[in-house]
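Structure representation.

___
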Amino acid sequence: MAADVANCKRCGKVFQKVRNEICPPCVQLEDEHFKVLYRALQKSSAHGGIVISELASETAISSEDIERYYLEGRLSTAGTNLKMPCQACGVIMGDIERKGRFCVKCSETTANKARVEVKSIQELEKADAQDRLRQQQLALLKNNQSAGQSARKFGLSQRQR
């Protein structure tokens, strides 16, 4: 079995690929970056968060790498302290004020132009819960109907069921 060889997506060096798209030294470097970022973001919570450009200069980690960690979901709860510019209008936004890379206003404007309805997570979860309840009620109704049909098939009266 031949080993897969690839160029590291981060540094470009050739390495023996096992699982990652980046070489072992770059994996180690990214892990160190992640730890530094996570600590800095946790500290920033006392001040209401930190703008991505300030975090980049404070940690010497590029804004692009920080944004990538955020978009990959690697910053988890500490990512809520990260303030980023909206990709459309440039306004600095916190976690609550953004939908992905865009502020709520730009996201809604784009959705309206595309004639797409924008719903909050809470609205989507409520709709999902209502759908599940309807499905359960339908299943129960079908079970009751089939039980009634079986009883009639065997000639049982309403009282005997």
In short: The chain has five helices and seven strands.
